[in-house]
Amino acid sequence: MSMRTNYCGLTTEALLGQTVSLCGWVHRRRDHGGVIFIDLRDREGLVQVVCDPDRAEVFKNAETVRNEFCLRITGIVRNRPDGTINANLKSGKVEVLCHELEILNASVTPPFQLDDENLSETTRLTHRVLDLRRPQMQNNLRLRYKVSMEVRKFLDANGFIDIETPMLTKSTPEGARDYLVPSRVNAGNFFALPQSPQLFKQLLMVANFDRYYQITKCFRDEDLRADRQPEFTQIDCETSFMSEQEIRDMFEGMIRGVFKNTLNIDLPNPFPVMDFAEAMGLYGSDKPDMRVKLKFTDLTDVMKDVDFKVFSNAANMVNGRVVGMLVPGGGSMPRSEIDAYDQFVRIYGAKGLAYIKVNDKAAGRDGLQAPIVKNLHDAALAEIIARTGANDGDLIFFGADKAKIVNDAIGALRVKIGHSEFGKANGLFEDVWKPLWVIDFPMFEHDEENDRWTATHHPFTAPKDGHEDLMETDPGKCIAKAYDMVLNGWELGGGSVRIHRADVQSKVFRALKINDEEAQLKFGFLLDALQYGAPPHGGLAFGLDRIVTMMTGAESIRDVIAFPKTQRAQCLLTQAPSEVDEKQLKELHIRLRAAEPKVV
Amino acid sequence: MSMRTNYCGLTTEALLGQTVSLCGWVHRRRDHGGVIFIDLRDREGLVQVVCDPDRAEVFKNAETVRNEFCLRITGIVRNRPDGTINANLKSGKVEVLCHELEILNASVTPPFQLDDENLSETTRLTHRVLDLRRPQMQNNLRLRYKVSMEVRKFLDANGFIDIETPMLTKSTPEGARDYLVPSRVNAGNFFALPQSPQLFKQLLMVANFDRYYQITKCFRDEDLRADRQPEFTQIDCETSFMSEQEIRDMFEGMIRGVFKNTLNIDLPNPFPVMDFAEAMGLYGSDKPDMRVKLKFTDLTDVMKDVDFKVFSNAANMVNGRVVGMLVPGGGSMPRSEIDAYDQFVRIYGAKGLAYIKVNDKAAGRDGLQAPIVKNLHDAALAEIIARTGANDGDLIFFGADKAKIVNDAIGALRVKIGHSEFGKANGLFEDVWKPLWVIDFPMFEHDEENDRWTATHHPFTAPKDGHEDLMETDPGKCIAKAYDMVLNGWELGGGSVRIHRADVQSKVFRALKINDEEAQLKFGFLLDALQYGAPPHGGLAFGLDRIVTMMTGAESIRDVIAFPKTQRAQCLLTQAPSEVDEKQLKELHIRLRAAEPKVV
């Protein structure tokens, strides 16, 4: 005989009159009119169990149960009395009259109430097992599962096969952020945990697997920001013989299917596509939050000869930029809010936040209100109004500095205003899902500090057709076949068409000033593989943690991971990482550096 | 326009007359009667491409291609001429008359022919990318994918959800076999890679996830035997509120479904069930190969008073055992074969291999042929014949020693004879799939060296109902709710019902002489969780690598893993593990022990 016949949360009127056995936890016990009511909880939800005093043994047992006791009950499903129906529960029209009650396991008093909304994260992570019993965490992890299963079904239907790549692999020579694993058998040697399966998936394409995917852990040993974990999960995909457009269409379809089949959300079809230059130009970001109805107006050329030095210096600087950002209706923004934004942009390196209120544009200079107006000549003011399309009652914020600072600061300001009460009240924010492809990334970024070019994406990304020679003649102009999928200001995933020809790969290495020996040492096995008829191929990787965080509206990716690490990379539940025995270190041929005598 | 419209291997008569674009590799090029024939290969197989000299450009290109060049061709599907149909290919009735031929990528000459059957494993693993192009490896990894996807579909349909558990976790205090990962952020501390998600999956049951699974990497740093890898993949499952029988039924159904839906093999329904004691008694193994029609006959009690010291000593020894193994028709076995078996059992610690040939059992002692006969009294000989059921023309092998040696040696001999030419010719081997549940394992094994009890499975395994007190009074008699699924002599998976009550867990720790402090240190977070109404739960784990190895008939699990390690735990493709920079070690607060000055 089965321990249970039904789930608590799925006990509905369809079972009326039937005897059921249910297992679950005491969510709440109420004694009312001499009868004991137990809300019994399992993963599907709650059901009300009624223990009458005329069943003496049941009642006696019921009197001893406390919250979080684990029970098995058997009873008959019946209608709840009129007026006691709970419309919030699937089981809310019925209750179970208990005939047998077995205490499967008692519980000590939990350190907190499961429905307490104000738990600190430390408490939650320390008592993670109880925290995971809370409906929100149950829902988050079940949605995570549904997302990954939808991904698998989609990819399976499209001929992708899941192939496992190694977890114990090779450290890359610069090795920053690699987690290392000392080898016992091979003294003095180390494995590295993969930062991504990038090279292996390319090898699988060369090996004729044609369409690969994997939902796999990746590792990065970096200081942990709010939305990072030392181990994170990627949906990693690669395909041969498909163009950039075909790849994007394929994976756009995947994400659309996931949203539809899990949350019944219809994402736009097709997703809008924007090139990198436009994204940076209009939003100062390669992952713009398109829900926000604000954009940049470039004014660099206009400001070269104004008296206001902040603007003219930036406009004449190498890599300088001056932008305006029109805030429709912003004229009513209180001074205190403007001051707060002034402080806010300084976080991103801006030295302040200039603005102009447009009171009466027909009045020319006199209709514009701001300290900077007097230092801008008429032509500049007219151009500002014309280009931004400002109307009376609007406000224009300005950024003027190195382009990176302007983009970061005014880009962040754009999002902040959009999400503010002001933004929402003034129609500057549209609360919908706004996906976007950002494409045509530059192949290379200039590393000013070391005066050299680095790969924007990674050195295996293919240049656009016809851009191969630019790698040598004008690297900054060379565009890559790289693409990111962005949703509401978050990068969901990104990828590229890869280089499949050894001669093109050599050009990239030359542009990056990687000589043959270094290339061989770092990527020898990939370069070797490219020689044997490597096929045209490309792919991308999605961050599963982040996708699910967005979909659940969770505050942190830690809320969509069963056993996450803290921002100090610690597990509060198991106390990992921890000290280990000297014997273990000895077997691994290492010792702690702390034991090193200090030279004074 | 798509780079390709169809797969080479799926180009069949259904496409006759159509123009197709195919991408793939030159498997073979033949010039015949002024026409060039290219067998083009993709992951679905081969198709014949015909390049006529009257299409000059195509022909010119075709002349330059060599094996493993990567091509894109466009052409018209037409019937092959009569007499040239290849019944071994899906595409064997058709060929593609090539109109366009683009060389997507050239190939240098491969270091070996892909269809060479005699490659060394070193060659194969060094050039793994080419090795993976071989049909056998393509099939192995695709079957592996199908198996894992069938598992997911089955578990999904049964309400199991995939939940990821940490890869960076805590080292267990004894820590043998743990791979360690030094923490950069937490100096002097180490993560361990999981040997299994055992404790986490139990925590998930306490956390009300009810039915969990994961197909996940596990790690064990041990000397590598033929069928082990440092990282291996487990199908890890756990469920609450199910009995042992229900759990076994569930997962038996899963494996039956996997075999049916991938290889169209019908495994028996239900699987036979045998308890541990019977398995050891009859086959000397807890994973008997049931294809072999040989079994042990226990003779320990019969041999206590015989003159033959090898038998009587073993029969009177603590933990001694004497068995006979009847080999029907074995009387015809040549002396050389018997001698070879005598050598074989010595590998397992046996000191020799006694036997009796039954020439004429009606003749009593005189009808039995063997040196040992003269040292066995009449009653013993009669009992040997009676118990084994020997007939004229049969042979009986004997094992007499400590039980462990007898079981290992005669158990291995049983399998060896069964699989031998002799065994197959004499009906001692049935070439079918023979699954089996082995259940009722002992809770504890006695560690003679340290005179203490150790857990046979792990210390969280529940004792059989009613056996709780035996843990203290007679641990050797205490039976566990543990079970292994065995197929053709291999353990596919195993598991148990777990302890969900803290008081029972304490009894186990007492039996294992683990004191409270030690228990808290080792398993504190599990013990803590058990206090909060832990539900009855249990589960099991299957070895995916091994299942797929069996299903493919591969010689090694390395043939079902894309990028395996050698038996020296090295990756010949990437050269992992490798040396790392001093800078990296410094960041991780460790240094190499080799650098330690030796004290002379």
UniProtKB/TrEMBL annotation, chains A, B:
- Asked whether the UniProt record includes Heme among its keywords, one would answer no
Instruction: Name the chemical reaction catalysed here.
Output: tRNA(Asx) + L-aspartate + ATP = L-aspartyl-tRNA(Asx) + AMP + diphosphate
Q: What is its main location?
A: cytoplasm
The top EC class is ligase
Q: Where is the Aminoacyl-transfer RNA synthetases class-II family profile domain?
A: 141-564
**Entry's InterPro entries?**
Aa-tRNA-synt_II, aa-tRNA-synth_II, aa-tRNA-synth_II/BPL/LPL, Asp-tRNA-ligase_1, Asp-tRNA-ligase_1_N, Asp/Asn-tRNA-synth_IIb, AspRS_core, GAD-like_sf
Keyword annotations for this protein, in alphabetical order, are:
Aminoacyl-tRNA synthetase, ATP-binding, Cytoplasm, Ligase, Nucleotide-binding, Protein biosynthesis
Q: Where is this site: Important for tRNA non-discrimination?
A: 32, 83
Q: Which PROSITE patterns match?
A: AA_TRNA_LIGASE_II
This entry carries the following GO cellular component terms, namely: cytoplasm
Q: Which residues bind ATP?
A: 220-222, 229, 491, 543-546
A Gene Ontology biological process in which this protein takes part is: aspartyl-tRNA aminoacylation
EC number(s) recorded for this UniProt protein: 6.1.1.23
- What's this protein's function? Aspartyl-tRNA synthetase with relaxed tRNA specificity since it is able to aspartylate not only its cognate tRNA(Asp) but also tRNA(Asn). Reaction proceeds in two steps: L-aspartate is first activated by ATP to form Asp-AMP and then transferred to the acceptor end of tRNA(Asp/Asn).
Protein name, as recorded: Aspartate--tRNA(Asp/Asn) ligase
Which organism was this protein described from?
A: Undibacterium baiyunense
